[in-house]
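Justification of computing resources. Each target in the renewal requires a structure prediction run like the one illustrated here; the chain below, 243 residues long, is used simply to show the kind of job we budget for.
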Amino acid sequence: MHKVINYAHRGASGYCPENTMAAFARGLELGATGIETDVQVSKDGKLVLIHDEQLKRTTGAEGLVKDYDWETLQSLDAGTWFNTDYAGEKLPSLEQLFELVKQKDTILNLELKNGFIQYAGLEEQVITMIKRYDMVERTIISSFNHYSLALCNKLAPEIQTGILYMEGLYEPWNYADQVGSTALHAFKYAVIPELVTEAAKHGKIYNPFTVNEVPEMKMLIAAGVAGIITDYPDRLAALLEFN
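Resulting structure tokens:
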């Protein structure tokens, strides 16, 4: 049985407010061997970990991440929306996440959130930080913006990338070759054993998202995926312990 990477989706987001240091730390406590998160850029150029371009859902603030400087973003409450027990949780920076995992074996999956908003220089900034923290071997960059991934592959071919997509992509291993990526980050329903097997023949791996139910996890493990992105890393950890 190959070793499946257990990616905590936005941290342990089934138990903690997503994309917070509390969620990342909890994910590791629950057995995650990887952390998946989303990267955007503040008005003054700080790399911020947050999923939505709009601040409203997770902080209650109006407007876009890109329109706030880092100091102002740090004044927002990113925890109360989930549960008052997490009141005062802050939006973290990418540096903070690297500091958390740099002495561990954790794999990072950094999703560049540059589909709706084109953050100039995001790829270069993220790559520079990955290298600064000596995380080249333990980071994979993903995005729904495949032009962005192609640029990452040109700038830093030594850093693994994964194409994010939702539905049935025809012969995705061939498409990944065009982009220069080695991983397929498909929505879980777009992953079947035959595709995983064929992709492997072409040197491509699958890391499907977002897989929260145990029967789905079992099916994907049996299919041979390389990693699973989940809100509940403890459920996956329990399965992997007996495989």
